[in-house]
Write a structure and sequence with these properties.
The protein is an alpha+beta fold. It has one domain: Alpha-Beta Plaits (2-Layer Sandwich), CATH 3.30.70.100. Helices cover about 35% and strands about 35% of the residues. The chain has a four-stranded antiparallel beta sheet, covered by helices on one side. Helix 1 packs across helix 2.
Length: about 70
């Protein structure tokens, strides 16, 4: 298992959390997505490391911004 943590900006409510979770969950190999609304912290657990570009694309698709790591 691999775990990566990112910061997402622009989320303001539970619907935002759901949108980000849904988009990232569609990335191949992702097992779990935990989103903390207050901090913008997103933890992605996957069976293989996930490319940051894939996470960035998913977050952008949801309408938010992934802060560069």
């Amino acid at each position: 298992m691999a775990e990566s943590t990112y910061t997402v900006t622009g989320m303001t409510c539970g619907h935002c959390v759901s949108s980000v979770t849904e988009e990232i969950s569609q990335i191949g190999g992702v097992q779990k997505v935990d989103v903390e609304l207050a901090s913008g912290k997103v933890t992605v657990t996957s069976d293989q490391p996930v490319a940051e570009d894939d996470v960035r694309t998913a977050v952008t698709e949801a309408g938010y911004t992934l802060v560069a790591s």
